[in-house]
């Protein structure tokens, strides 16, 4: 079930920046990645989980869930906590440092999370020799998550709470 951390937060995410990360050069509006987000729309998530090899029961629970992702930062440690009615998962990491992750469906992965600029968090996972990617892009009102597995791309939009 820790797969949901990767999928819902996955939080998925990259270069060190502060809680006051800003994209003022492009929008004039400061954007903080730190915050709480609730899933508001999802496209091809079931297909994404199928590409990961997630079992039928877990796929149906995950597809029906409306997760809340909380991203926090203390010093250089980031935490992504994903909560649903049936499971809560948490990962803690330093940007750019590989760590061992056990996903919600019990896959063991080597995961590295980095930043691309100040509003994009990138997660790269290698699980049983297969590579997966999760990109999170933040705006003042939402987090857009793109999840990649094989030829499937799922897009999940989370509104900022």
UniProtKB/TrEMBL annotation:
Entry-linked InterPro entries: Calycin, Fatty_acid-bd, ILBP, Lipocln_cytosolic_FA-bd_dom
Coiled coil spans: none
SUPFAM superfamilies: Lipocalins
Signal peptide: 1-18
Sorted UniProt keywords: Lipid-binding, Signal
Residue ranges occupied by any Lipocalin/cytosolic fatty-acid binding domain in the UniProt entry: 35-155
GO molecular function: fatty acid binding
Purpose: Binds fatty acids in a 1:1 molar ratio.
Family the entry assigns: Belongs to the calycin superfamily. Fatty-acid binding protein (FABP) family.
Name recorded for this polypeptide: Fatty acid-binding protein, muscle
Organism: Folsomia candida
């Amino acid at each position: 079930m820790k797969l949901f951390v990767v999928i819902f937060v996955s939080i998925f995410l990259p270069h060190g920046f502060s809680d006051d990360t800003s994209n003022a050069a492009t929008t004039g509006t400061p954007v903080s990645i730190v915050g709480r987000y609730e899933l508001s729309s999802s496209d091809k998530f079931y297909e994404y989980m199928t590409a990961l090899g997630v079992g039928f029961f877990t796929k149906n629970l995950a597809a029906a869930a409306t997760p809340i992702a909380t991203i926090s930062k203390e010093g250089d440690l980031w935490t992504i906590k994903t909560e649903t009615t049936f499971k809560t998962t948490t990962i803690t990491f330093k940007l750019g440092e590989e760590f061992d992750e056990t996903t919600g469906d019990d896959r063991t992965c080597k995961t590295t999370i980095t930043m691309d600029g100040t509003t994009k968090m990138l997660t790269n996972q290698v699980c049983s020799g297969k590579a997966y990617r999760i990109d999170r892009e933040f705006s003042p009102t939402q987090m857009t998550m793109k999840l990649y597995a094989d030829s499937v791309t799922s897009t999940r939009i989370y509104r900022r709470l």
